[in-house]
Amino acid sequence: MIPNLLSIFRMTAFLPVIIFFSFEYYLTSFFLFSAAAWSDLLDGFLARKYNLTSNIGSLLDLLADKILVSSILIFFVFYSVNLYLMILTTLIIIREISISSLRLFLVSNGANISAITPDKYGKLKTFLQMFSLSLLLISPLFGNIFFKIVLILLLISTIFSLLTFINYTNIWRAIKKE
What we know:
By secondary structure, the protein is an all-alpha fold. It is 84% helix and 0% strand. It has six helices and no strands. Helix 1 (2-22) runs antiparallel to helix 2. The radius of gyration is 17 Å and the shape is globular. The relative contact order is 0.12.
């Protein structure tokens, strides 16, 4: 129950984060986003520790991350009007849609869900994305150079994102051969 509530919190946190940011409450926005990002670890920990895992919980967890990250990225594309951020956002969102579609395809064709869960690179990708986005939320306080550094961090997370996509396609090929 609590892990699912944490996922729902993550799914809805993007809106107040964007509202606080829009009214220049950058630190409030940062802390709320950070709490939402860390809730991902907490819900996974609680679900495993107390054996509260479920298919709906797994689905909510995946959806929550995608909604939180995609919403904030899309907002920042419009807020910053930055071509590099738009390209990174597009790559990240295309990857997320592709992976979700691939997971759905594999599961609907009888694949074991445990074979297609995130690996250590996927977890690193998620951490780097959440870290980059949290820094993006406070970037107006630190200026253009800080913003560019955050874009480099986001680029690194995008590279990991694409590497994990390759890992998923390799898993798909291995399952397809079975």
